[in-house]
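The following record pairs a protein chain with its ligand, adenosine-2'-5'-diphosphate.
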Amino acid sequence: MKYVTLNNGVKMPILGFGVFQIDDMKECEEAVYNALKAGYRLIDTAASYGNEEAVGRAIKRSGIPREEIFVTTKLWVSDANYEKAKLAFETSLKKLDLEYIDLYLIHQPFNDVYGAWRAMTELYKEGKIKAIGVSNFLVHHLEELMSDCEIKPMVDQIEFHPGHNQKETVEFCKKHGIVVEAWSPLGRGVILENEFLAGIAQKYNKTIAQICLRWIIQQEVVALPKSVTPERIKSNFEVFNFELSEEDMDKITNMGPAGYTGSDPNLGRY
Ligand code: A2P
């Protein structure tokens, strides 16, 4: 496993396992358990996914020491203010049945993000959270938050996959020492039908999913693929034994829209 280092020195795996839309608790527990057995050491959930308990159960069941697993969860919009953020954090902690969270993110740039950030900063200083960040923040959201915060975000988790480069946000984050995480790194599975990517996959004798994930981690962006299928969970993890040439990296970067983009159009207007 390769790691990235956050701006506070915390190390985070460059490849994690996302559980968005795994609504069935048994299925979620099984998927996280299988992911941990396959070698994943970063699990990404959120209060709004409604599956934190299942994630907590899978972690316990795996028998892997807590300190070897990096757990991320997120504060939902309706709880994004100073008082509610503190309560929501405790609820997440209880549901996950953990003593601390590795990374806590403001899920979306809505509601009182300044108040929420102050609460998260305090929890961070108390050691209950090892790193704090945001999700779905574009450049202007980051600039606004950073204009009035004691500690700057360590992470921004955004939709990012071939055909959806988010160039401006990624460049801003790199310049300011904020690690970018990619949600829907496989474009929810839709871009896995793409013919251009199929050609690259054939050249490297890899799956299209592996090409997408490799393209992401080779840019030092953290990828968080989701799957409930054991073979896919395993094969999505096998991306450390090959490298894309610079030329192919550029070709994928410049391939143009590849189908799915789930980005909320309201984000830009906030
Ligand atoms: P499933 O969960 O049924 O295995 P993303 O992470 O971009 O949101 O994409 C998740 C979607 O991609 C899910 O529908 C998942 O299906 C599918 N998926 C994940 N890995 C693979 C893979 N290696 N090949 C094909 N589809 C995949």
